[in-house]
Amino acid sequence: MTKRKKTQKNKASKGWFHFLKRDGKKKAVEKSSPRKRKKDNAPRVGPSLRIALTIVGFALLAAGLTAGFMAMERYVKTLPQIQSRTGPLKLINPPAWFDLAWEDQMIQALGGSHFPLDETTAQLVWERLQHIDWLEKDSVRVRITPRHVEVKAAYRRPIVSATVEGRRCYVDEKMIVFDALPVTKIAVPEVVGFRQRSVPSPGTVWLAEDVRAAMELARVLTLMDQQMLTAEEPLTKPLLDEIASIDVSNFAGRQNPAKPHLVLNVKDGQTKVHWGAAWGQASRLMEADEKEKVAILYQFYVENGQTLRGTAKFIDLTQPRTLVPRP
After folding, report:
1. pTM of the model
2. How high is the pLDDT of residue 71?
């Protein structure tokens, strides 16, 4: 009996101190963990506030992206202006007689006067220039420089003109036909009296012997003018400026063998120059040599104050005479 009571007393004492010990541990833990207490005491974010903050974040992100894309778009728009430059067309050594109307037609055929300075432009310009009839196709060269689109080519110089059915065209020294454009710096006499009633398409050869005879005569007078304009006592203006047309209606004597085969009509509408046979045919017809004809004509031109207008009814060059020195 006494033993049982002692045991119960021990249990009671053990249980009492046991609970005290457990309470002490809890208090110690609570004292040693202030962060945990603060975290537990912190206010918690509710679901509605979290949604509102998310929406605001997305709105700010969208605004930032929009501003960034707008800035990038402005940069892209200005970037080609910096990296892709353009330049004007530049003709390398065009002939002295080259007129503004010819350049305007070239610009029109190319679709503008300024081009991107890249190799694609060089090919495009070269291809379009192939369609201009007064350029020799094989001579066209296009080069891109940092400032220009350079074009170098051989230009067909008009020697004579002809009009058929209201269409006026030029003929160069190779008898190539091309459409006529205004020209003010050189004389281009017209061929009249030729038989052919049609003109070949531009860029092709005109196989008309009477037109060829007029072209060869005009070419000789052009070369003579160039020599005389640079002589020691130069001309003040070309003789060919006095010639309005070359009449080939009696070419090869087809109308009257006794009359001059070729006649130069002076611009006064009255004076005529009887040239005679086509170039190279004078000896066959017992006429004056071609060199003699040229010398006599230019001497007459100089002696009359460098004009043929109103000087005589006709100037005959067909009769042989002593060779007159060139003035």
Report:
1. 0.72
2. 64
